[in-house]
Amino acid sequence: MKQFHVPNACLIILLLFCGRKLFAQDSIRYHHLQPVVVRATTIKVPEKVWDHFSNYFTGAFVRKWYKVNKRYLVKFMLDETENRALFTKRGTLVYHISYGYENNLEDRLLTQIKDSYTDYAVTRAIKVSENNRVIWVVTLEDRKQLLLIRLEDGELEEVERMNKKNGGEIIFTNKQI
Q1: Contact present, 136 and 159 (Cβ < 8 Å)
Q2: Alpha-carbon distance 169 to 47, whole Å?
Q3: CB atoms within 10 A of CB 38
Q4: What residues are paired with 124 via a beta bridge?
Q5: Per-residue pLDDT tens digits of the chain, which is 177 residues long
Q6: pTM score, two decimals?
Q7: Are 124 and 136 in contact (CB under 8 A)?
Q8: What angle do CA 134, 135, 141 make, to 5 degrees?
């Protein structure tokens, strides 16, 4: 009978020891983080501003309106292109910026760029419209350099030239033209 009790006693001690370890997980203290609260302010866009926006940019998908000083800035998508426009409180369009790529450039502008920079690829094309002016800011890139050019009224101007390291990383020792 004594042999029967010794293994049972060992088993009981083992279960108590292991059981204590298993239940020890319940006693771990959890530190709860404070809840994150996001506060968004919606602005009321005057009807006149909204109407003028809708007339200028038919079919636009509005992402967000902002009040900047006493003007209204809108971020929106139009024809799969990201855009920004600034309006006065009376609805007058101050400027419009369209962020695009090579396929958004007019054919004559693309030909002009390709003729002047034969070995470069167009990586970004941004169209800025303000006060009856249309200015294109275009980024060009090849293996060694990144160029920033400006086009207005058929006139092409190189604004900035940046060299790349061997791995394609841009060196920020810019050469302004």
Answers
A1: no
A2: 48
A3: 4
A4: 139
A5: 444 455 555 445 544 555 544 444 445 555 566 675 545 466 889 999 999 999 999 999 988 999 988 999 999 999 989 999 999 999 999 999 999 999 999 999 999 999 999 999 999 999 999 999 999 999 999 999 999 999 999 899 999 999 987 655 555 544 444
A6: 0.69
A7: no
A8: 145
